[in-house]
Amino acid sequence: MGEGLLSLRRVDALTPSESINERNNRSFVHGLNMSCRIDRVVGGDDIVVLCISGRITKQDVDILRNVIEDEASAIAIDLENVDLVDREAVKFLVQRELNGTVLRNCSPYIREWVTRERTEIMETSGDIEDA
After folding, report:
1. Is residue 13 a part of any domain in this protein?
2. What's the CATH number where 53 sits?
3. In the chain, N or C: fewer CB atoms in 10 Å?
4. 16-28 in b/e burial notation, b at 16+ Cβ within 10 A?
5. pTM of this prediction?
6. Does 69 fall in a domain?
């Protein structure tokens, strides 16, 4: 996997002083109200890993969804440094996992909650909407 954080801003195009490595390893910073940090890292296998730290709340779900939609390649979400999620965030993670996103390094409580929520969604609706 690429090395650490190289930029605290999100830029859609390479700046003259930015290398391809810096383009592949970014941080998405939304503002002071955001309760989590999203670092974008591209591994040697060209899988984009969004490393999230902090808390994922309902307010962060739209930002996370937009970051994922901007990606053209395979995505994984690394939750190793996530210390708290709310129900809306868990529902979002369930939808992403059902749509093929790999959830990496889930804490046991997040994994259990995602599993329970996925089971409930599948039992009650039978069909899954896009996240």
Report:
1. no
2. 3.30.750.24
3. N
4. eeeeeeebebbbb
5. 0.70
6. yes
Mean per-residue pLDDT, 48-54: 95
Whether pLDDT at 119 is above 90: yes
- 27, part of any domain: yes
- List 34's β-bridge partners, or say none: none
Q: What is the CA radius of gyration of the chain?
A: 15
Contact by Cβ (8 Å): 35, 55: yes
Phi first, then psi, for residue 36 (nearest 5°) are -135, 165
How many Cα atoms sit within 13 Å of 101 on the Cβ side?
24
Residue 7 lies in a domain: no
Q: How many structural domains does the chain have? A: 1
Q: Strand 102-104: give its sheet, edge to edge.
A: 26-28, 36-42, 48-56, 75-85, 102-104
Which domain covers residue 109, as residue numbers?
20-124
Residue 3's nearest CA partner among 18, 19, 25, 34 is: 25
What is the per-residue pLDDT across 64-102, written as a single tens digit (0 to 9) for each? 999 998 888 889 999 999 999 999 999 999 999 999 999
